[in-house]
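Hi D.,

Good news: the full-assembly prediction came through. Inputs first.
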Amino acid sequence: MADAPAIELTGVGRRYGERWALRDATVTVPAGATLVIFGPNGAGKSTLLRVLATLLRPHTGTASVLGEELPRREWAVRGKVGLLAHDALLYRDLSARENLRFHARLHKLGEERAEQLLEATRLLPRADDPVRTLSRGLLQRVAVCRAVLHDPPLLLLDEPRANLDPAAAELIEPLIGRESGRTRVITSHDPVGGLAEADLALGLRNGSQALLGPTSEIDTAAVEALYR
Amino acid sequence: MSRDAARRDAKPMRPTMALLRKDLLLERRAPESIPAMVLFSITTFVLFHFGLGRDEVDGSLAAGVLLVTILFAAILGINRLFVAEHEEGGFDAVLMAPIDRTALFLAKGTALFLFLTLVEVVAVPAFAILLLGPSPWHGLPALIVTLALVNLALSSVGALVAALAIRTRSRDLIVPIVTLPLLVPALIAAARACAPLLAAHGDAWPAAKWLLMLGLYDLVFGLLAYAVFDFLLED
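Then the structure:
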C-alpha cells in the first residue's frame, strides 16, 4: 500500500437546494485500500460517490482525489476514476459491444480492450444485442466492463454485486475485487460482507458521519445500528 | 500540465466524432427526432393552407411560413438532443471521460445540423407542392445556401440551450422560451433573404447584406456557445 492517500476529505458537505445531503465528511483513504460506506437509503452514500467522481462539487470543506484538489483540478481526475452507479450509464439502444467501443474511443483506447472485457465477463454471446434486452444481471456485467474499461486507479462502486448471481459475482471479482489492486470505495448494506471486503468503514446517517474507523475495529452491531 | 495544455492534448475532433457517430447510430437504431420533425413540418404546412385560407403563398409570406415551420420543427429536435444521455444515464459517463467538453457541443451541434438538413430535404419539396405558388427552381441554389446558414444558427443555439435545459425539470418549457428570442435576428435575416427567392419573378439571389448578417450571427453565436458550453455542464 503506497503512502500517499488516494482520497482525502475534510469537512466535505453538499446540499441540494436547502437540504444538506452530506455534511462534514472527513476521511482519508490510502492508495490501494478499500473504503466501505454504510448507511440507510438517503444517508448520503451516492452523493459522496458523485463528489468523488467529480460529478458534484462540494459546497463545504476540501476534497482531494488521486492527489488532485477538487473542484479546482477536477479535469485532472477525469479518466482516472471508474464509476459503477445505480444506473448502468449505458445507451440502451446500443449493444454492449457498441457501448464499450464508444467509451473506449472517449478514453482513447483501442477496441481490443472492449473485446477483452466482453470475453472476461462471458458476454460475447450477447455482445451484439441491444442492452435494453439484457437481464439486470447481464446489464450489471456490461456496466462493470464500462467502469473498468480505462483501467482506472480509483473505483467507485455503488452496491456492485446487486442483481448478480454468485457465478457472475465471481466472474467480475478480478475486475473490481480486492485483487484488482485499485483503490476502491464501495457502498453496501451488508455489514458482514462489507466489513470483510474493506480496510476502512464509514457510516452515514441523515448525511452526517456516524461511524468511521478500520474495519478490524468495527463490529457488525455498530453497522446495524445505523439502520435502526 | 496546465489546463490549457491538457485541453490542447485532448484533441477534440476524435471524441467529437465518437459522440457524433453514437448520436447518428442511436437515431438510426430508434428513429425519433427526424420522423417527428418531418411530420410536424408537413402538418404545419397543411394547417397554414387551411388557416390562411389560401391555396398558394409567395414572397415574404412564403418565406415566413417556411422559416417559422423549420424553426418550430427544430425546437422538437433541440428538446430531444440530450434525451438519450439524460434518460439512459450515459451523460455522467461522458462527463467523467478525459475529453474537452466542447467536443460534446461540436457533436450535438453537428448532429442537429444533419437532422435539420435531412428534414429540409423532405419539408422544402413538400412546401413547394402544398403551398408555394411560384416555381422554386430559379432561387434554389440561394435557398440552399440560406437554409444552410439558418441550420448553423439553429444548431449552435440549439446545442447550447439543450445543454442548459437538460438538467432542469422543465426542459420542454425552457427550450422554446430561451431559443426563440435568441433566434429572432437570424429569423429576420433569413426571411428577408428568402423572400425574393420565393416570389414570382423574384431575384435568384438575395441582397448580400442578409446573407452576411446570417453569417455574422452564426459566427458570433457559434463562438459564444463554444466558449460557454463547458461552464454550462459544470455542476
